[in-house]
Design brief:
418 residues; 3 domains; Aminopeptidase; SCP2_sterol-bd_dom_sf; acyltransferase; binds acetyl coenzyme *A; seven-stranded mixed β-sheet; single chain; aminoglycoside N-acetyltransferase activity; Acetyltransferase_Eis; Nonspecific Lipid-transfer Protein, Chain A; transferase; alpha+beta
């Protein structure tokens, strides 16, 4: 990381962040992302959410030249367990110090720390997907963005949808009931994050500077039998041309406890008067509305990477999830950045539980920790990685066996950025 010509005193120093340094540290991060100031509300939120004891900075004298943070998350894995995971965040290096190994030094420190804390996983969302594979992260979830032409696309909803009552509410006033709905959904889908107090505010953060002409955040609750069974948060962006109205509904979040409530909320979003488009970003790839529409092509679905997953402790991570069909395979794992994972591991498990221990038995499959990260949440098939030359089958049949076992019936999905 240090420049060859630098004296000892000039060498950048990597250390744990202090609370009183947060402002300089955060300004370094913002500048690395272009330097456009955030709203006071957003800055205050990230200040309160930053876990300084788990964050690191690289300093040259008083100047901060590198930043990286960790949130202490719990991540749902296949089978529904909630597993400690380091949410790697706020990574930046000053442009004056780029490509000298500052990021590499921070990744080294972080993954050593995460191992010491005893957490089996690290996860992140990447500004650019190319950055993190070299540190053992694989793309474990995908997500869709959509732009639905609601003048042409009709939604067929299941029976009972009309029994769901919808009502507007002020988003901040119903934060607790919405959060309760979210909390009941967390175990249902791999990739979901159990939210700690404070994180619910992210869902209603609504700086005017981010609205781009759209309304303040709106919220509609779905109720049945007096109980809140779902909610949608969205903005409406009015627009008119010579032919009349062509506004857009920009969906921020929708959660519901059952498919009927979910359909009722989507039906509502499709039908708001004076609008002709519904846009949404970062939705699950298997979300039900896609199978209820009359014309999927006019929904302009695009897929991109979501959560990048790194197994910090291969044995603990693979043993923490379940497998939808029985698996008994020996993995030969290569992990150049975290060599404590390198070697052979026997995974034995089924839908009830699993164990993954070191072994001297012959390998069935050979792969790098990055592929294990990609396949871990059940959204990327080991067989597909095999077809791409990223997994080598040593024992015939082992790839199919492991692929079926690893798959998740529900696509993994990260509910929000961090
Ligand atoms: C989880 C998050 O927070 S994602 C946010 C990441 N931050 C940003 O995108 C902000 C703008 N960019 C930056 O701050 C910096 O350019 C960083 C953090 C991406 C990279 O920092 P640097 O200190 O320049 O990286 P470093 O010199 O340690 O490079 C390590 C390796 O990654 C590679 N690398 C670094 N950045 C990139 C990139 N953007 N794309 C592709 N490869 C990259 C380097 O070439 C090097 O490769 P090598 O191992 O083959 O030698």
């Amino acid at each position: 990381m240090a420049k060859d010509s630098a004296s000892e005193a000039d060498r950048p120093e990597l250390r744990v962040l202090r609370k009183d340094e947060w402002g300089i540290w955060y300004d370094t991060l913002i500048r690395a992302f272009g330097g456009v100031a955030e709203s006071a509300e957003e800055r205050e939120l990230w200040d309160s959410l930053t876990e300084v004891d788990r964050s690191i900075g690289v300093w040259e004298g008083d100047a901060c030249v590198g930043t990286a943070g960790v949130f202490s998350f719990r991540l749902t894995v296949p089978g529904g367990a909630s597993v400690p995971a380091a949410g790697v965040t706020m990574v930046s290096v000053a442009a004056t110090h780029r490509r000298r190994g500052v990021l590499r030094s921070m990744m080294r420190r972080q993954l050593d720390d995460v191992r010491e804390w005893g957490w089996p996983l690290a996860v992140l969302t990447a500004s650019e997907p190319e950055i993190y594979g070299r540190f053992g992260y694989g793309v474990g979830t995908f997500q869709t963005s959509v732009e639905i032409d609601t003048t042409r696309v009709r939604l067929s909803v299941p029976p009972g949808t009309d029994d769901v009552r919808l009502r507007y509410a002020v988003p901040a006033d119903v934060l607790d009931v919405c959060e309760a709905v979210y909390a009941r959904k967390v175990a249902d889908r791999p990739g979901m994050l159990a939210r700690q107090p404070g994180w619910e505010r992210l869902g209603v953060l609504d700086p005017e500077s981010d609205r781009d002409g759209a309304s303040p955040l709106q919220c509609v609750l779905a109720e049945r039998g007096g109980e809140v069974v779902g909610y949608a948060r969205f903005h409406v962006k009015p627009e008119w041309d010579g032919n009349g109205p062509k506004g857009a509904v920009n969906l921020r979040d929708v959660q519901a406890l059952d498919p009927v409530a979910q359909a009722a909320l989507w039906q509502f979003l499709f039908g708001i008067d004076l609008t002709s488009t519904v846009t949404a970003r970062a939705r699950p790839v298997d979300e039900a509305w896609q199978y209820q529409v009359s014309d999927i092509r006019r929904c302009a679905v695009r897929v991109r990477d979501g959560l990048h997953v790194r197994l910090v402790d291969v044995g603990a991570a693979l043993g923490a999830r379940t497998y939808q069909a029985p698996v008994d395979v020996v993995f030969e794992v290569e992990d150049a950045f975290c060599p404590w994972n390198t070697g052979r591991w026997r995974l034995s498990g089924d839908a009830k539980g699993a164990s993954c221990e070191r072994t001297t038995d012959a390998a069935d499959l050979s792969l790098s920790v990055r592929e294990l990260g990609a396949a871990y949440l059940g959204g990327v098939s080991l067989a597909a990685l095999g077809a791409a030359g990223r997994v080598r089958e040593v024992r015939q049949g082992a790839l199919a066996e492991a692929s079926v076992g690893f798959a998740s019936a529900v696509a993994p999905w990260l509910p929000h950025g961090f």
